[in-house]
Amino acid sequence: LKEAQNINRSLSALGDVIAALHEKKKHVPFRNSKLTFLLQNSLGGNSKVAMFVNISPVQSNAQETTCSLNFASRCHEVALGQAKRSSLQRSSGSKILTPKKTRK
């Protein structure tokens, strides 16, 4: 039960982020959950995003399926912008990847 509550809280925070991105608000609440904090770079506009929604054909899951489809519909309306190509290189002697300088 506690795990389900935490999952719902994270998904609710993800919904808040999606809504803020859709409305193009200045402040997007990425720090409201670990999930949204980790997804911040992916949802920030420099990445392509694909979302999969699990639904069930079973009648007893109809309400959950409807909620999932509504959430997917709201996500589909958000335009994050065009993904930008980024080349990464390793810093000398480091495990950290940094953007490569490209010629113009």
Order of helices and strands: HHHHEE
Structural class of the secondary structure composition? mainly alpha
Average of per-residue pLDDT values: 82
SS element count, helices: 4
If strands are numbered along the chain, what order do they take across the biggest sheet?
Answer: 1-2
Distance linking N and C termini: 55 Å
β content, as a range?
A: 5-15%
Report the radius of gyration as a whole number of Å: 18 Å
Shape: globular
- Please give the number of β-strands: 2
Biggest beta-sheet profile: 2 strands, antiparallel
User: In percent, how helical is the residue content?
Assistant: 40-55%
Low-confidence runs? none
Descriptive key words:
globular, 43% helix, mainly alpha, two-stranded antiparallel sheet
Write structural notes for this entry.
This protein is mainly alpha-helical. It is built from four helices and two strands. It has helices at 2-22, 34-38, 40-43, 62-76; strands at residues 88-90, 97-99. A two-stranded antiparallel ribbon has the order 1-2. A hairpin with a 6-residue loop joins strand 1 and strand 2 (97-99). The longest helix is centred in the N-terminal third of the chain and has 21 residues, at 2-22. The mean pLDDT is 82.
